[in-house]
Amino acid sequence: MKLKTLLLALCVASTTAFAQKVKYSKEERKEMNRYLFNEGFDTASDKKVSTIILKDNTEHQGYSKSWEKQRGQILSITIEDVDTGKPMKFAAADIAEMYLYATEREKSMKAGKFISNIRNYSTKKYSKSVTNDAIPYENQIVSLKNKKEPKAFLMQVINPEFNELITVYHDPFASETISTGFGGAPAFGGGVIKSYYVKKGDKVMWLHKDDFEDNYDFLFGDNAEFMKKYPKNSVEWDYLSFLIYQYTEMNHG
After folding, report:
1. What global pTM score does this model have?
2. CA nearest neighbour of 162 among 42, 53, 243, 221
């Protein structure tokens, strides 16, 4: 009987220790709050030359004219050939990767949104909102919101600088947490994007804020050192970009 009581006590103690939260310093939390993803863009400039690379490695350049979308994701794109001026339509299923440029109008909107939220000043880089760089897209077979029949889409990569292990794609229909502001002053808080499309290994899925904890082990569970330093009961959805960046760095030693 004493043995059973001792084993039960040890079990409870180990469970308590395992469930214990990691306490981070103010400086650590400030670093974790940094938003490292690129901004998601939903339009393309017809003034700058876009580049399309097909699966057979042939390359086409032209000015973006129109596209067909489903829930904001690109099914096909039509460009005006840079040399001939003729329209050329390409299905997402035939494209390996694509590089577009954001419109000045959308960049201005992103810049205005950045300035209107105080939270961004300490968590985001202004240059991410107004980038003049080409925006990368990849071909992926995806089930929209994990519900629709999988199809080939061209999806914007928003972590191109650290996507070796986990790639994150823009969700054009993602909602955000609410910001609050008074009397025309910049808002405080809010503005946190609630969903992305995420690829790890061969799996691509729609990841929502509400499902973050359920998928935490899938994303990071194969790195014991990471899980010890950032257990899922100690971190928040707001830290996703930082966590993916750190996971990538720790896996690279």
Report:
1. 0.89
2. 243
Q: What is the pLDDT of residues 23-69, one digit of tens each?
A: 999 999 999 999 999 999 999 999 999 999 999 999 999 999 999 99
Q: One-letter amino acid identity for 204?
A: V
98 in Cβ contact with 134 (< 8 Å):
no
Q: Compute the C-alpha angle 120/122/125, nearest 5°.
A: 65
Tokens 């899925």 belong to residue: 205
